[in-house]
Amino acid sequence: MGRYIRSRTGTVLTSLLALALAGAATASADPVPTPIAALTAAARPAVDGSRLTGIAEGPGRMVDIEVYSAAMNATITVKVLRAVDDSRPAPVLYLLNGANGGTDGSSWTQQTDIADFFADKQATLVIPMGGRGSYFTDWQTDDPVLGRQRWTTFLTRELPPVIDSTFHGTGANAIAGISMAGTSVFQLALAAPGLYQALGSYSGCAQTSTPEGEVFVAAVVSRWSGNTMNMWGPFGGPTWAANDPYLHADRLRGTAIYVSSGTGLAGPLDTLDGPGINGNPGKLIAQLTSGGILDAVTNQCSHAFQARLDDLNIPATFVFRTLGTHSWGYWQQDLHDSWPLFSAALGG
To answer: What is the DSSP-derived secondary structure letter of residue 199?
Structure first.
């Protein structure tokens, strides 16, 4: 009897150990990222010859790709956070940086938790770098300082086929942007009907052709020494109206829309230990002053755009924070909050 008990106990322990080891192996068996060589081989050019010219591993699932833009005759760096299983098809979320184009450490990859937040999500994130002061639009004329700006063409015609072929895109896309790019997302959606199933505008301003809108746009562009005459021509001209999302909001019907803004009043993240401040009093003062003014402006723009969409009976989600400035901590929160809307629109 004793021999039977010992034998049975040993069998049970062996079985339990095997199950535990199998469970541990399963838990750690995350999908292996596709090798760089395979990604490169899968890439296909756009119709105009724009193409992938380089790709390099980054931290985690991040890769840096280089894409030649025929429209701008330039190579653009694009950061891509691969889907949790990049061997399977995945929708694409394009994230646009603000007025500085992602320089000086002010970018989605350096200021937010996108790598952690999307760690378990089957979605490819695409963050183009560059385009400071450009409004991510196609300029009429090359600018002496900013050079050739053909961002609408790049973002809507040249980059998507490269991304979809390289990273197994499903053809479903969303786009979100902060500040200057919070205006651009509407303009890009209008320029490429059907390309984006959802868009997010965080602290952006949809009105560009009113006198106030023209002044605001000119202030953003001139900060980077660009000239709006080269972008959309003289104030009051037809190109300003053509690029005003407020005037053409009816064409956004059928797109999932998320718009957010603070009031510019100091909020819970506007402190010395807040995101991106790192105890620096100078940064905090700048966030409370210029950041406060900017979100006070975008708050008015966003309320006006809400009224416009209401008049058109176009559904949209508007989030108006009673407190909060023009800063990354709030935009990270906006991305988290808008993701369920994006995911549903993308088929998730």
So the answer is: E
DSSP SS3 for 55: strand
Ramachandran angles phi, psi of 284, nearest 5°: -65, -40
Contacts made by residues 139-145, CB under 8 angstroms, sequence distance 24+: 139/230, 139/231, 139/232, 140/230, 140/231, 140/232, 140/233, 140/239, 141/229, 141/230, 142/230, 143/226, 143/227, 143/230, 143/231, 144/227, 145/224, 145/225, 145/226, 145/227
- In tens, the pLDDT along 163-210 reads 999 999 999 999 999 999 999 999 999 999 999 999 999 999 999 999
Q: What is the pLDDT of residues 84-112, one digit of tens each?
A: 999 999 999 999 999 999 988 899 999 99
Total residues found in the chain within this entry: 348
Phi and psi at 244, nearest 5°, equal -95, 105
Extract the tokens encoding 301.
Answer: 């723009």
> Which residue is it, tokens 């756009």?
46
CA distances from 16 to 3, 10, 11, 13, 180 (A): 20, 10, 9, 5, 58
Query: What is the three-class DSSP state of 2?
Result: helix
Question: Are 82 and 119 contacting, i.e. CB atoms less than 8 angstroms apart?
Answer: no
Determine phi and psi for 239, rounding to 5 degrees.
-70, -30
Q: Answer for the pair 283, 291: CB distance below 8 angstroms, yes or no.
A: no
Burial class of residue 255, CB neighbours in 10 A (0-12, 13-18, 19+): buried
